[in-house]
Specification:
Structural class: mainly alpha
CATH architecture of the largest domain: Orthogonal Bundle
Strand content: under 5%
Number of helices: 11
Number of domains: 2
Distance between the termini: 19 Å
CATH class of the largest domain: Mainly Alpha
Largest sheet: none
CATH topology of the largest domain: Tetracycline Repressor, domain 2
Order of helices and strands: HHHHHHHHHHH
Radius of gyration: 19 Å
Shape: elongated
Length: about 210
């Protein structure tokens, strides 16, 4: 059991080191030597868990969806807002998620499947939009799969802008501005009136998710 726990810790240490290196240098410029130095493990230990830099990067990419949990609530529009708030908080404080997002938009990461995270988000948003539509929360012209693509694409763009100008420090402000501009063209006014996109809600959601994961 102790050996298994040690292996899990070593794997996590390597992943965190890889995330830091990918975040700082991008996929192409990052090297196994840099990751080894950051993790302070042997080359054998790294290759035991991850056969290549590509495998390491792919695992970091997948981490942004791991343990992601948004509680159900009566309004599905609120659930979409909660998804955005929760991911925003993770981008500000979780090095694995930061690195995953950096890799997702890295145009030089030709070897990686960078689309999976976007497809996952698109699917989750579309699912909630369809439920919101069935509950009468959406305006009549909304087509859920089309609107999901717009919301996910706009959010990805805001993330990139915030990363470029402030290392995500202003992400919450930019994201809530985006939601205030987009949601009135999606949801009926009575639903919008009760949507909560406060910082307190964001922090509470993150605390609940963290406790659940532990």
């Amino acid at each position: 059991m102790a050996e298994q726990e040690r292996a899990i810790r070593t794997r996590r240490t390597i992943l965190l080191a890889a995330a830091k290196v990918f975040q700082e240098h991008g996929y192409q410029a990052a090297t196994i030597s840099q990751i080894l130095s950051e993790a302070a493990v042997t080359k054998g230990a790294l290759y035991f868990h991850f056969p290549s830099k590509e495998d390491l990067a792919q695992e970091v990419l997948l981490s942004q969806n791991r343990d992601f949990f948004v509680p159900e609530c009566g309004s599905k529009v609120q659930e979409i807002v909660d998804m955005v708030l929760l991911h925003t908080r993770r981008l500000q404080c979780d090095p694995m998620v930061k690195a995953a997002v950096r890799l997702s938009v890295d145009q030089l990461a030709h070897d990686l499947d960078r689309g999976e995270a976007f497809v996952r988000w698109d699917s989750l948003v579309q699912e909630r939009l369809e439920k919101a539509q069935a509950q009468g929360e959406l305006l009549p012209h909304i087509v859920p799969d089309e609107t999901a693509g717009v919301l996910v694409g706009a959010y990805a763009g805001i993330q990139s802008l915030s990363q470029a100008v402030s290392e995500h420090r202003d992400l919450y402000t930019r994201v809530t501005a985006l939601l205030r501009h987009l949601l009135p063209s999606v949801a009926v006014p009575s639903v919008l009136a009760s949507v909560d996109m406060s910082e307190d809600r964001m922090l509470r959601l993150h605390a609940e998710m963290t406790a659940r994961a532990q």
